[in-house]
């Protein structure tokens, strides 16, 4: 027996639960205007309670992407710094010969 009724529309899992605020209590804006704690923009922070759950979920995804970019940039900076320290370390060893 085939079911010819309307197809079942599956909800995304995030639509089934309330989206918690990403706030961690470090409410300070950085130089680009994003919160240093949760990485939301000023508009995202001010209008959080007015947003639908789908909008909130999108903001949380944006915050996660921002965090990933920050971590990647820090890793690149750390590698560059280590490479520069290695160059100066060789020069320092040569200067000790004199």
Kindly describe this structure.
The chain contains 2 helices and no strands. It is elongated. The chain has one domain. The longest helix has 43 residues. The relative contact order is 0.09. The protein is 49% helix and 0% strand. With 98 residues, the chain is mainly alpha-helical.
Average pLDDT over all residues: 79
Any idea what the shape is?
Answer: elongated
Write the element-wise H/E pattern from the N-terminal end onward: HH
Strand count, sense and barrel status of the largest sheet are: none
Number of contiguous helices: 2
The proportion of strand residues reads under 5%
The number of E-state strands comes to 0
Instruction: Please mark out the parts with pLDDT under 50 across 5 or more consecutive residues, or reply none.
Output: none
Number of domains: 1
| Helical content (DSSP H or I, runs of 4+) | 40-55%
**Strand pairing plus helix content: what structural class?**
mainly alpha
**Separation, N- and C-terminal Cα atoms:** 93 Å
Overall radius of gyration: 24 Å
What's a quick, concise take on this entry?
By secondary structure, the chain is mainly alpha-helical.
Q: Secondary structure elements and their pairing?
A:
Blueprint: H1 42-46, H2 53-95
Descriptors for this entry?
2 helices, 98 residues
